[in-house]
Amino acid sequence: MYMSRELCAAASASEAVIMRDASSAYLAGGTELLRSGTERSADRLIMLKNIPELKGVSGETPEAVRIGSMTTFQEALGSDLVPAYLKEALRYMASRTKRDMATIGGNVALMRDDSYLAATLIAAHAKLELLHWAKPDSGESVQDRFGCPDKNGSDLEEASQVRGDQPVREAICIRRYLQHREEYQKDLITAIMVRTDICVVSKRYANTAESHSYLTAAMGYADGRFRVGVSLKNAGVFFPKEFSDSLGEDENAETFARFANSWAGLDIPDDLYGSTAYKRYLLGVTLENLYRSLKERISSGQRTDGRKGETEA
Ligand SMILES: Cc1cc2nc3c(=O)[nH]c(=O)nc-3n(C[C@H](O)[C@H](O)[C@H](O)COP(=O)(O)OP(=O)(O)OC[C@H]3O[C@@H](n4cnc5c(N)ncnc54)[C@H](O)[C@@H]3O)c2cc1C
């Protein structure tokens, strides 16, 4: 088992990003990083729990909600602002104990092939707020130059500002994060932005509620366009853009079966979760069902997520 050797507490988001180097990792709820046998650990963990700006849920505009990355699954389920489609995905984490600890930012950063949230966030066209520390004058890390970890985060921040380095904030679409994981590896996810003026439906398959899922699929409808997100165990997390763009308002079963059987670039393994043929079949019928359910809601005038979803204490 790999153990982390040092724990640093960051007091602000910019302090956290300046502490982050190749041998460290951000520590959120710790359900992955601190679990026995994890392969994700690092020499130094940068604790995020004391950073106020990473916490809380706020209604940015009537159409969008900002969820701080340190918001736990359970806190999000307890918010009236979080749309019902996201609550549905949050409940895929069946263990209440884990929901009390695990954060939304930690889940997005992991982007596992059995992710609870990835398919839904992709279909919902969610955006991520990211923070990184720009070092325009050299490729050298701030830690190398200033001798972290002997210096604390505030010293580093001050030193970097004197040299003209800047914290850079960026908002990107979750699909971009998925496609360019390497580029964003050291970035701190500060928040997830989700829309409330859209319709999203999802479906997760697992042997038991607490087992890893072997397929999670989601479909969203926004601005007259359909969007599909898929997580497949031992295959990855996907956004089939061409297929999503091709969907119109009058598709039939054939469309989805054809797509699932011929999706180029999707290598579905034959494993304990099921044969390749079975998983392709399941993907086709699941997408068809999601499409039908979206269409029903659209035709009954529910184009936005008017359902608030049950709020949990
Ligand atoms: C028994 C068990 C079963 C699990 N099953 C599933 C499953 O089916 N599906 C699933 O998706 N997950 C699963 N997990 C993994 C994990 O519980 C969740 O993904 C959880 O949401 C991670 O959040 P956390 O806050 O605990 O992250 P942490 O463990 O603290 O961190 C996870 C990773 O995210 C990085 N990170 C955390 N916060 C940020 C941030 N704000 N910005 C950038 N990087 C960050 C960390 O550096 C680390 O690499 C399981 C874990 C256990 C122990």
UniProtKB/TrEMBL annotation:
Every Molybdopterin dehydrogenase FAD-binding domain range: 9-130
Any one Gene Ontology molecular-function term assigned to this protein's record: flavin adenine dinucleotide binding
Pfam families in the record: FAD_binding_5
Organism superkingdom: Bacteria
Gene3D superfamilies: 3.30.465.10
Name of the protein described by the UniProt record: Molybdopterin dehydrogenase FAD-binding domain-containing protein
Native species: Porcincola intestinalis
